[in-house]
Write a structure and sequence with these properties.
Blueprint (H helix, E strand, L loop, with lengths): L2 H11 L21 H15 L5 H5 L4 H7 L2
């Protein structure tokens, strides 16, 4: 999956308009990055990327780029 597709997926998880996020954005600067979007993101990681992440992995995410790295 291309990087831009992953960003689009993050925008869907956070219920943002397409083109809103960039790699350098800080996740905490978005009020949409809340507990529900975190759970949705964890679900996407499991279903689309076959990754099982722990809450501590999510807690360590600072930027969109960090989230994209989990999708590798």
């Amino acid at each position: 999956m291309e990087k831009q597709e992953k960003i689009k997926l993050m925008e869907e998880v956070m219920d943002l308009e397409e083109g809103t996020l960039s790699e350098s954005d800080t996740l905490s600067s978005y009020e949409e990055w809340d507990s529900l979007s975190v759970l949705a993101f964890m679900s996407v990681l499991t279903s689309k990327f076959q990754k099982n992440v722990l809450p501590k992995d999510i807690k360590n995410l600072v930027t969109v780029s960090d989230a994209l790295n989990l999708m590798e």
